[in-house]
Amino acid sequence: MTTHQNSRPTPPPADNQAFLPLRTAVVLLTALVLGLIVGALTALTGTHPATAVIAGLTTTGAATAALHTLIR
Fold first, then answer.
1. pLDDT value, residue 71
2. pTM
3. Which pLDDT value is given to residue 8?
4. Low-confidence spans in the chain with pLDDT less than 50
5. CB–CB of 64/31 below 8 Å?
6. H/E element, 55
7. What is the pLDDT of residue 1?
8. CA–CA separation, 58 and 61 (whole Å)
9. pLDDT at 31
10. Segment holding 40, helix H or strand E
11. Contact residues for 56 (Cβ-Cβ < 8 A; gap 6+)
12. Which of 25, 23, 21, 55 is nearest to 38 (CA)?
């Protein structure tokens, strides 16, 4: 009897490391959601759209710093 060998090389093992650690993803996603909420609420008050964008970006930055220290 003859044995049949696969002519294709076996692929290297998959790298199971994530692009971002879970903690980083949670902090950034939560900060982004908070920034969107504050920006939308600011826009609903009738202010200039640029003011709402600045409020949302400021909230995102502050929330990122705060959540970085809070979530361990």
1. 86
2. 0.74
3. 77
4. none
5. yes
6. helix 49-70
7. 61
8. 5
9. 97
10. helix 22-44
11. 35, 36, 38, 39, 40, 42
12. 55
